[in-house]
Write a structure and sequence with these properties.
This protein has helices spanning 6-11, 21-35, 74-85, 99-108, 115-123; strands at residues 2-5, 42-46, 58-59, 62-66, 93-95, 111-113. It is of the alpha/beta class. It has a single domain (2-123), classed as Rossmann fold (3-Layer(aba) Sandwich), CATH 3.40.50. The chain has a six-stranded mixed beta sheet, with helices on both faces. A hairpin with a 2-residue loop joins strand 3 and strand 4. The protein starts with a strand and ends with a helix.
């Protein structure tokens, strides 16, 4: 299972994504869906509340979720909770550039891939 901190991956490439966050999220979801390894569950965690442009639902095989918590660490806390509640954290890879989140999920037994490295994975030719 992969759990992706969406805004961390968007922030790994400063291409003006912040001017149209929902459009950038939709493009990112399409890129992740095209990359998704067969048979793997991929959860994309987004800070905030669902919007009509990017609803909380399945998106081309991805599980799109919103943190639903106020504050800057909403997605981080939701990701930590997912890892903590897992029967097998060793089968999870969390994609983030946040040092605190990285430390906590590693402590719980999950693997971590940096957002920049993941961005490179998405950008690599297939």
């Amino acid at each position: 299972m992969w759990i992706i901190d969406a805004y961390n991956v968007l922030g790994a490439r400063p291409d003006g994504w912040w001017r149209n966050r929902m459009g950038a999220l939709a493009r990112l979801l399409d890129e992740i869906a095209a990359w998704r390894p067969a048979g793997e569950t991929v959860v994309v965690m987004i800070d905030g509340w669902p919007r009509t442009e990017v609803p909380e639902r399945s998106w081309n095989g991805l599980d799109v979720r919103y943190a639903h918590r106020r504050g800057p660490d909403g997605a981080d806390n939701a990701i930590i909770e997912m890892v903590r509640e897992s029967d097998d954290p060793s089968g999870m890879t969390v994609v983030t550039s946040d040092a605190r989140l990285r430390s906590q999920v590693l402590e719980l037994g999950a693997a971590v891939e940096g957002a920049g490295t993941f961005r490179e994975r998405l950008d690599a030719p297939v």
